[in-house]
Amino acid sequence: MICTVQELPVVVDPVRSAGRLAAVRRSGLLDSAPEESFDRLTELTRELLGVTACMITVVDGERSWWKSHPGLPPLPGTPPETSVEDSFCRHVIALDDALVLDDSSADERTRDSPLTGQLGVRGYAGFPVRTPDGQVLGSFAALDTAPRAWSAADLRVLGTLAGVVSTEVALRESLRAAEVQRARAEVVARAGELLSAGLEQSAVLTAVGRLAVPALGDVSVVYQARRDGRVVPVSVRHRHPSRQALFAASETAAVLSTEDPSGPGRVAATGLSELVATADDGRRSADAPRPGTTGHGGEGLRDAMVALGAVSHLSVPLSVRGEPPLGVLTVVRTAGGDPYTEDDVRLVEAIAASVSPALDNARQFATQRDFAARLQEALLTPPPAPDHLNVVVRYAPAEQEAQIGGDWYDAFVQPDGSTMLVIGDVAGHDSSAAVVMGQLRGLIRAIGYDSDAGPAEVLARSDVAATGLRVDAYATVLVARIEQVPGDLTTRRLLWSNAGHPPPVLLDTAGEMTVLERRPSPMLGVAPGAARTDHELQLTDGETLLLYTDGLVERRHVSWEDSLDLLRAALAGAAQLPLDVLADRLLQRMRPEAGEDDVALIAVRPYDQTRPPPAPSGPATIPLTSVPRPGR
Predict the structure, then answer these.
(1) Are residues 390 and 344 in the same domain?
(2) Which PANTHER family match (predicted)?
(3) pTM of the model
């Protein structure tokens, strides 16, 4: 036996249909202030027809808003509105045509309305106000406090003027649509700016958030997908700045997970866009969070969207060449806006695709930077501890946004007991420069250790060897050697040779700074075989020798003389400080605020061998975040 079930027709309330309510939101007329263009039409109608009042109403799912209502004051103590149930206009919407009543008190649809009982309306003739696609926003109506037999001429006037109101609505909608298209076109055009947002992935993602609001929505959150499964907000923007801080602390901008059943976490896991048309749709469609997840992608995210007043939210992946998403862009439209459509999904996905080159650049940069950083870390070895010298080394990397440099230091003891110091900077700012730096450092170290050669000879032989071995090296290098003077425990002999590098600095025990400026020889890689010269100076106990790379002293738009004045000021009163404290202080005071370049530093101080040696220095590598700056 087969049982058939007859499906009952679905009754759709025309007042609360999704399409009509979206049209009302799009019009922007609900809750809006009086406007002269509408008030002129209603006043003109009162004069032409001799009626008590004329009104333009806009109706949503709950109330009828009186946009213009000369001659009809609102109910005492209430806004210029009535509920949908008490509104005459709802019948205009239901009819999709004019409602004409000679006496509203005699019609069962309107006799119990406060407009009839409290405001004394009797005669009523209302015509639909439509959008260009035919949706009825509300009505244009004439009202009388006495019963009225409406003539054909009366109705022609009302119908004509209702058409004028509809035309005004259409014009406004066209202007708004044009503005939306202009804003979207601007976003697409500006997407190219992301290529100049920087080489840091977080900077590119932050720039995406700036593009998204207000062109794509009222709110945007850009998330970064981490390898540990976390989906972390890196940019939070609200079109109203006063609400941005509150929103940034909400669940919407919380750390999510790729295990979330929906929301940005799920988009990061699947690489598929997710569209939630309304907050209600989200409550109905989202599943409960899976065991062990954060829950932000389920109830937490839905509750945040409801609190935000979202009518729709859209999340699209930010990917590179089909790889797992590096991030997610979530845009939100709040009350007064239209829900996102499939057309919007395609638009936002197109913008996300235009982000791909900038993200790819950032990813490649991150790979190069991490490689170079690991290489530099491996090469930045602790300094030796000869029995007559205190040697402190420091390396401070550039800011994340800056490029990787080829700065390095080295210090080792030669077979005859002399201490060799090397400071250098390879031209270039990428992984290739870091590789060349490693090769050149190894050459100089091997040549310097294998012989008792002085600094000039070490530089000359290294330059020739690098050329012969096809090490494509262009670098400024300073090599120094410190020897004990036979029979003199208080004096050291300093020899140095400079291949285009910033000159050494000597700080005597009285705090006087001297720049050991000598004519440098060419940098390595420029003129192999060029003559190089050793320079000599006597060092006494307590004096401090400083070797450094140009990142310590060079500034944009600052002359060399002024940079030396800054260095002199940074060293004021530092002559008697422990050497490691002096080195840290120098980095703190001299590094440019933006940290635009790496800095390598060697500080050397002979000490009295009849006294205990100084305590070991601190770490050689100083992470940027551990180097405080003035005013922080």
Answers:
(1) no
(2) STAGE II SPORULATION PROTEIN E, STAGE II SPORULATION PROTEIN E-RELATED
(3) 0.49
- For residue 430, the model assigns a pLDDT of 61
Would you tell me how many other CB atoms lie within 10 Å of the CB of residue 281?
Answer: 14
Task: List, as one string, the DSSP characters of 130-177.
Answer: E-TTS-EEEEEEEEESS-----HHHHHHHHHHHHHHHHHHHHHHHHHH
Q: What is the pLDDT of residue 236?
A: 85
Following DSSP, what letter does each residue of 232-297 receive, concatenated? EEEEEEESSHHHHHHHHTSGGGS-EETT-SSSHHHHHHH---EEE-SHHHHHHHPPPPPTTS-SII
Give every strand in the sheet of 219-225, ordered side by side. 256-257, 230-238, 219-225, 327-334, 310-318, 274-276
User: Computed from CA positions of residues 117, 121, 124, 127, in that sequence, does the dihedral angle turn out positive or negative?
Assistant: negative
Q: Are 338 and 187 in contact (CB under 8 A)?
A: no
How many CB atoms are located within 10 Å of the residue 294 CB? 19
Can you tell me the distance from the alpha carbon of 327 to that of 224, in angstroms, rounded to the nearest whole number? Answer: 4
How far apart CA 162 and CA 590 sit, in angstroms, is 74
Q: Are residues 39 and 165 in the same domain?
A: yes
Q: What amino acid occupies position 405?
A: G
The structural domain count of the chain equals 3
Instruction: Give SS3 for 469.
Output: coil
**Hey, what's the torsion of the CAs at 439, 441, 443, 449, to 10 degrees?**
-150
Cα distance between residue 549 and residue 62, in whole Å: 71
Q: Is 3 within the bounds of a domain?
A: no
Collapsing DSSP to helix, strand or coil, 54 comes out as strand
Q: Is there a domain that residue 488 lies in?
A: yes
Residue 589 falls inside a structural domain: yes
Residue 514 and residue 548 share a domain = yes
- Here the CATH number for the domain that contains residue 444 is 3.60.40.10
Same domain (yes/no): 348, 405: no
The per-residue DSSP string of 433-463 comes to: HHHHHHHHHHHHHHHHHHS---HHHHHHHHH
According to the model, what pLDDT value does residue 558 have?
A: 85
pLDDT averaged over every residue in the chain? 81
In this structure, are residues 478 and 495 in contact, taking their beta carbons and an 8 Å threshold? no
Same domain membership, residue 478 and residue 357: no
Do 215 and 294 lie in one domain? The reply is yes
Where among 131, 149, 182 does a domain terminate? 182
Q: Is 586's pLDDT higher than 60?
A: yes
Query: For position 20, which CATH number holds?
Result: 3.30.450.40
* Distance from C-alpha of 397 to C-alpha of 340, rounded to nearest angstrom: 45
- H helices within 322-430, ranges in order? 342-379
Looking at the structure, tell me whether residues 569 and 605 fall in a common domain.
yes
Strands 513-515 and 53-59: unpaired
Q: What is the pLDDT of residue 119?
A: 93
The model's pLDDT over 289-335, given as tens digits with 9 standing for 90+, comes to 323 333 345 556 666 677 677 788 899 998 887 778 888 999 988 87
Are residue 153 and residue 256 in the same domain, yes or no?
Answer: no
Neighbours of 6 (CB within 10 A): 4
Q: What b-and-e string marks burial along 592-614, b requiring 16 or more CB atoms within 10 Å of the CB?
A: beebbbbbbbbbbbbbeeeeeee
Of 148, 182, 216, the residue that ends a domain is: 182
Q: Considering the domain boundaries, does residue 90 fall inside one?
A: yes
pLDDT recorded at residue 383: 82
Domain span at 619: 380-626
Contacts of 390 (CB under 8 A, 6+ apart): 579, 604, 605, 606, 607, 613, 614, 617
77-91, 110-124, 176-190, 290-304: the lowest-pLDDT one: 290-304
